[in-house]
Design a protein that fits this description.
transferase; Sulfotransferase; single chain; globular; about 60% helix; mainly alpha
Amino acid sequence: MTLEAQAREALRQGALQAAAAAAGALAKGSPDDPAGFFLLGIVAAEAGQIARAVPLLEAAVARGPHAEHLAQLARLLILLRRDGEAAEAATQAMALSSKGAPTDARTFDTIGCVLARLGDHGGSLAPFTAAVAAEPWNLDYRYNLASACGFTGMVEDARGHYEAILAADPGNARTHYALSILSRQTAQSNHVPRLEAALAAAPEPHDALRIRYALAKEHEDVGNAAEAFRHLSAANDAHKRAIGYNFAQDAEIFDAIEAVFGGAGLPAGTGHSGPAPIFIVGMPRTGTTLVDRILSSHREVEAAGELQAMPLAVKQLAGTPSRRVIDAQTAKASAGLDAQAVGSAYLARAANHVAGVKPRFTDKLPANFLYVGHIARALPDARIVCLRRNPMDTIWSNYKNLFASGSAYYAYSYDLMDIAQYYARFDRLMAMWEGLLPGRVLQLSYEALVSDQEGETRRLLAHCGLDWDNACLSFHKNSAAVATPSAAQVRRPINADAVDRWRAHEAALQPIQAWLQAQGMAV
């Protein structure tokens, strides 16, 4: 067995010391062969030493490009938030594959995953398809392809792949959930019996979480409000206990932001000029995706997705040691940041997600409402739109949607009172921004938008400095990918189906309604 084969076999078995020994011997004995450096890099990555692994993979690529090496380098660069370099490496890997270079299924899948992380879901279709063609029995590869199909509007293709997965693995929880949100279910066509069977057999809490969310979605679709609430309550109660969330964690962040900006106001500073970015902010599930589709249907605007560019720019320049992108320490440390530096850092990161074929782009990260102060200073010509939706519909919609379950951004969303408290602080923060920056943020009502589509769209475009474009009224024909829970809704013409949806659960939500009213909020 060759040294390369020995190293690969040791990696497969998880024997990192043996893999490192074989790879090291190969690199020393054949210094011009990229394989030794590549395998040493993979060993380091498997040991969690990503920063050490990247130079080793770069050394391998420098000795002769291989699709596998470039794909793994791209994967690690994504983990280090070096998105531009990751995109370049993934593109090179795919180009080699297209020219007939030997490429295995795992490499194709890795390329697809990198492109998906970069928001290029259309671009991810080709490598994911190639991965499934090479290993049709690999359910992880097929799931990734199904997701890409769903994001790009190929709903029936996605459904076929999801059903193929469930035929092979009936308990696959993430597939059950993905299939439930792919389209609206009906009394005549739904998966409730199959989901009940899967829940009864669910081996792990995280599987039960996803299956219960799927059951809640389908029960709500078919009008079984009590069953929907029962499953959500069980799922969310268990998950909140598992993650140990306390609202005080988020309250500290709001307190810090208000302390930085609410006392002396916005610090002076000249930012990076130019109107290119349009920030769409607000609580999740309030119409941000809808507005993004409207704006990106305009001839001058492209959708860049939910960028982490502003949070990462602030985190990087604040220099705080915590692993979280946003926390109270980082908010406090950001007080004296140079506006020009923040603007430049943001635009450099955003450029990795923008095709650049249109003069303007949208950044649809809802949590950017926490960064309005930084956006206003760093990008004085950028436009900001904040979606507002009835508080009760907002709270219910946050409670019933399964966000990224490991993300600190959404840790508040597993308890109705936590969501209500979070909403109240969001509302208070937006009032502070309005006081500091009167007129700078367009407060756009979701309910007003669905009742007067053209009038509110004209107001939206005027705020963003855009001329009228009739295509904005036909946003549902926009072919761009959608990677949010709103994907099915925004492919239909505008409608009021989601208005007052909370009233189906009015009795259960009454304590939340009373609490909001006690805070002086109209519900």
